[in-house]
Each structure stands twice: as structure tokens, then as C-alpha cells.
Design brief:
This protein has 144 residues and is mainly α. The protein is 69% helix and 4% strand. Helix 2 runs parallel beside helix 4.
Length: 144
Amino acid sequence: MNNFEWMKENKLIIKVLLFLVLIFIDRLTKYIIISYSDIAYSSNSGFAFGLLEGFEFALIINLIALICMGIVAIKDSFSMELIFLLAGATSNFFDRVYLGGIIDFIKILSFPWFNFADMFINIGIILYILRILLPDIKKFISKH
């Protein structure tokens, strides 16, 4: 059995490993920033990029979103976009529960602070949009 055949037969294992690696990357970078670095970081209790800061139901809404995404992921055979979305949301959920807010440490120009989990969520959204739009784009190109 070659590597490609093994990967094909073990797609679920590979996707679960990717999910765990993405969470590990986010957790590790936050741990290093907080524990061993002089790099500035921010903590927020809001949603994406600090929106709705101080919104007291953020934890509950985050948990409901995680459960809904989990159910969809199971029905959708863990698509790549859902793996990225779930990994980012899960890691940020850990921050909310254990640290009281999301740890953000990446700052680019005037863009709000963010972290790897936020990037994973955005990658998931982009992959989802592409999955929806690509068939229509291909049809459009083939007709013209």
C-alpha cells in the first residue's frame, strides 16, 4: 500500500490530526507569548477581533456555535473548512473558559489584534466561500 492509498483510507484520522495540530499551534504560541516573551499581547472578551467587547453571553454563544459546527462537521464528514473553523473556535473557547478572554498577540498596522485561532477561523470561512462559489465560477468560465 503506497502513501496515497493509506491517506485515502484514513481521511478521518488525518483530519482529526490536522484539527489537533491546529489547536496545538494556537495553544503553544499563546503559551509562549504569555510565559516567555516580551512581545505585547491583548486580551479581549469579545468576538472576532474584539467586537462586542464585554458582551457577557460570549461564552454561551461560543459554546452553542461550537456544538452546531460539531454537528455539521459530523454530517459533512469533517470538511477542511469545518476543521479550520472548529480548531480556531475550540482554541479560543479554551481561552474564554480558562483565561477569561481571548489572548491576541498579532498586530498588523491598524488592524485589530488577532491570533492563530482567528486566522484558522478566517481560513475556514474562505475555504467555505470557495467551495460554494467554485462550481458556479467553473460553469461561468466553461460557458464563455
